[in-house]
Amino acid sequence: MNELFIIWSILASQVLLGLAMGCALFRMARGPRAQDRILGLDALYINAMLLLLTFGVRTANSIYFEAALIIALLGFVSSIAFAKFLMRGEVIE
């Protein structure tokens, strides 16, 4: 019973994360300002990272955890670069 509950919980979390990614994609496409689009991109990469982590837990494969780490690092750097570009108009001084 316990193992079945965990399997269904992971499946439900993956479905909900997919819905959250759809909402973030909608905000990224239809955001009225650039700041809204960047916020949608942040939410999208965080949800993608969490979705990969749930796949890793479900399949017990470590490659998903490594891919989630790469997405987290690249997403953070891109968020900082976009924010700096919006503030100053240039990324590299």
From TrEMBL:
Belongs to the CPA3 antiporters (TC 2.A.63) subunit F family. InterPro entries: MrpF/PhaF-like. Its main location: membrane. Pfam families: MrpF_PhaF (PF04066). Keywords: Cell membrane, Membrane, Transmembrane, Transmembrane helix, Transport. NCBIfam families: PRK06161.1. PANTHER family: NA(+)/H(+) ANTIPORTER SUBUNIT F1, NA(+)_H(+) ANTIPORTER SUBUNIT F. It is a multi-pass membrane protein. This is Multicomponent K+:H+ antiporter subunit F. It comes from Rhizobium herbae. It is found in: Cell membrane. It comes from the Bacteria. The chain crosses the membrane at residues 6-26, 38-57, 63-87.
